[in-house]
Write a structure and sequence with these properties.
This protein is 73% helix and 2% strand. The protein has a two-stranded antiparallel sheet with strand order 1-2. The protein has one domain (20-367). A hairpin with a 2-residue loop joins strand 1 and strand 2 (112-114). It has 368 residues and is an all-alpha fold. The longest helix is centred in the last third of the chain and has 34 residues, at 269-302.
Length: 368
């Protein structure tokens, strides 16, 4: 009876301190991801059972972190900087392992793989929230823009060397988005825009790999090479179109079940969802993401500290950009980048990073 009462007290304490609609939405998205993956390959597919484990452990981690007082990160610069250094070390470790499809972005031990870039995205949000919360009054000083940019440039540069353009884009948008939110003046925005144009031109000429340039070209005209570089986008569009309004049914998506759609668990999970559940299905997923973001921003509005508000904004940027690019790629509106769709794509690294961030967010809701 004592153990049962203690568990009941902990449960009541947890529920009373969190944003319940946000928690329910996250759990619903995670459960739908399992439902969707089961429809793609059934229980014979190892991806399904691994994702079950990822979801369970991720939700447990989110719950534990919601009890962690976020003020420790807010008030402890040494701990945040140590977290940043650890993330950089982890980000460099994939160079010690064999490449996967030409990319060295994963740490592979036994049958398990971990993508450090997903963890680094969360650390950048923590670091930028810490940095800007202490200097928001003096943000118009170019020195702070440069220093914050250098903090982000290091992991972005390492990620580009792997090469993982998609993750580098997310890191860049976190930095840029938080700069815009804290209030750059027009002159600074203009200078930053011009600098980005120059960096983009130099990057296209010297940094992008040939296959990455091919992805951009095939995105603009996938029909120019329908059996090669344009194949993925063409099959993705066919899968989305085949779903119509209500889809072909759970486990009955023609493009997915017949093996025409590449990477239906990861890069093109949005298309495989449409293949099974149609416009109604992907509309429900996107609506859940929008609702989730609205709850995060509501926590940001009510946060009593600049760190809490900025952290919530950074997490919003990560989820939003992932969803926009993830759906945009599958619809043929953007080049293929390999970015997972939040909560729906297979994989533990991205899911755990998002759930850890949401756990910290619930801590901000709990402790103010």
């Amino acid at each position: 009876m004592g153990l049962k009462k203690s568990f009941s007290n902990i449960t009541s304490q947890y529920i009373s301190g969190i944003d319940k609609p946000l928690f329910a939405t996250v759990v619903a998205l995670c459960l739908f991801s399992l439902f969707n993956l089961y429809g793609i390959g059934g229980t014979q597919n190892p991806y399904f059972w691994k994702q079950v484990i990822f979801v369970i452990l991720g939700i447990v981690m989110m719950t534990i972190l919601s009890f962690f007082n976020y003020r420790y990160l807010k008030n402890n610069s040494v701990a945040v900087f140590a977290l940043y250094i650890i993330s950089i070390i982890l980000l460099m470790m994939p160079f010690l392992f064999d490449s996967i499809r030409g990319v060295r972005a994963w740490i592979s031990i036994g049958g398990l793989t971990f993508e450090p870039a997903e963890f680094v995205k969360l650390v950048i949000v923590i670091l930028m929230a810490k940095y800007f919360s202490q200097r928001h009054i003096h943000i118009n000083d170019y020195r702070h823009i440069i220093v914050s940019g250098l903090y982000c440039l290091i992991p972005i540069g390492i990620t580009l060397l792997q090469p993982d353009l998609g993750s580098a884009i997310i890191m860049f948008f976190v930095w840029l988005g938080m700069l815009v939110v804290i209030g750059l003046n027009r002159r600074q925005l203009f200078v930053l825009a011009m600098l980005l144009l120059v960096v983009g031109a130099v990057g296209w000429t010297f940094a992008l790999k040939p296959y990455q340039k091919v992805r951009v070209v095939s995105f603009l005209n996938p029909g120019s090479d329908p059996r090669g570089s344009g194949y993925n986008l063409i099959q993705s569009k066919i899968a989305i179109g085949a779903g119509y309004w209500f889809g072909s049914g759970w486990g009955k998506g023609p493009q997915t079940s017949n093996g025409f759609l590449p990477e239906p668990y990861n890069d093109f999970v949005f298309a495989s969802t449409a293949d099974q559940f149609g416009l109604l299905g992907i509309g429900a997923v996107l609506s859940a993401i929008v609702f989730l973001v609205s709850r995060i921003m509501k926590i940001a509005e009510r946060a009593t500290s600049n760190f809490g508000r900025l952290f919530a904004i950074g997490l919003t940027i990560i989820i939003s950009v992932h969803a926009i690019i993830g759906s945009g790629v599958d619809l043929g509106l953007m080049p293929v980048t390999g970015i997972p769709f939040p909560f729906i794509s297979y994989g533990g690294s991205s899911l755990w990073s998002l759930l850890a961030g949401l756990g910290i967010l619930q801590s901000i809701k709990r402790y103010g």
